Amino acid sequence: KWDDLIDRKNGKGNRMKNSRLFLAAAIAWTLQLILADAALAVGNAEIIMLTGKGERRDSEAAAWISAAVKHQVQPNGFVRTLANSQMALLLADRTQMRLNQNSQMQIKSVADSAEFTQTSVRLTAGRAWSQARPQTAPGTAPNKAQVLTMETPSATMSIRGTDWEVEVRPDGSTQLVVLSGEVEMANDHGAVEVGKGEAAIAEAGKAPVKFLLVNPKQRVQWVSSWKPQPRRWLGADPKPFEGDIALIESGNLDA
Fold it and tell me: What 3-state DSSP class applies to 224?
């Protein structure tokens, strides 16, 4: 829809410009991941992007404190995003996670790439996108690769080498969308294998149900949203807008 609107209103030239901007953003995201990976402690997750406001805590009993880029999240630690906010995490096994607004996740354990152990997280609210790249131990079959496990209030998902999005709805049900790879979605009432371009939903007290999506990538457009940069648009005299700029740069996007 966005591309069609650009074509009708501004012509194909602007569509090409928009594609170049998206490519530039993707390159910047990749470089950010490389730099973060070099400094990431084994067994931890690191916050590598934060738009708006986010918080973290080391345990369920600890108080929430403000989160910031480069903060390390230890095993059993929690992170959450507030309204109009997003957070990106890089795990020590090179798994990428991105949380949409009003989301909460626990990093239960992070795999050690050298030991080929398992990464486990729990999404209790909101939406999360992930790109998992599990490693395979030397001399083992590909289907024995590390498994990323995500728990929600209504399901557990086992993922091997895939891109996927999970949403925990207000009623506790879970919707899974798989963009590539394969995910097993299970609970006490049954299990389904969900492949590329497919989705599944799990509700409390019911077995997961699989269905097809016409265009699954539309669901994850939020993943490529950019961080606001108000100063680049204000020209030589930003003084009348300093108050608004300060609110944006502090993450107070509601105000």
Answer: helix
Name the helix (H) or strand (E) containing 44.
none
Secondary-structure breakdown of the chain: helix, strand, coil percentages, each rounded to the nearest 5 = 25, 35, 40
The predicted-structure confidence for 143-202, as pLDDT tens digits, reads as follows 555 578 999 999 999 987 688 999 999 999 999 999 888 999 999 999 999 998 899 999
pLDDT tens, position by position, 10-38: 555 555 555 565 566 556 555 555 555 54
Q: Which residues of 43-67 are buried (b: 16+ CB within 10 A; e: fewer)?
A: bbbbbbbbbbbbbbbeeeeeeeeeb
CA atoms of 105 and 89, how far apart (whole Å): 11
- Distance separating alpha carbons of residues 27 and 25, to the nearest angstrom: 5
Write the secondary structure of 149-189 as one string of H (helix), E (strand) and C (coil). Answer: EEECCCCEEEEEEEEEEEEECCCCCEEEEEEEEEEEEEECC
Sequence-separated (6 or more) residues with CB below 8 Å from residue 181: 132, 159, 160, 161, 162, 163, 164, 195, 196
Alpha-carbon span 234 to 61, nearest angstrom: 44
Is there a contact between 185 and 207 (Cβ–Cβ < 8 Å)?
no
Interstrand relation of 148-151 and 119-131 (parallel, antiparallel or unpaired): parallel
Distance (Å, whole) CA 193 – CA 191: 7
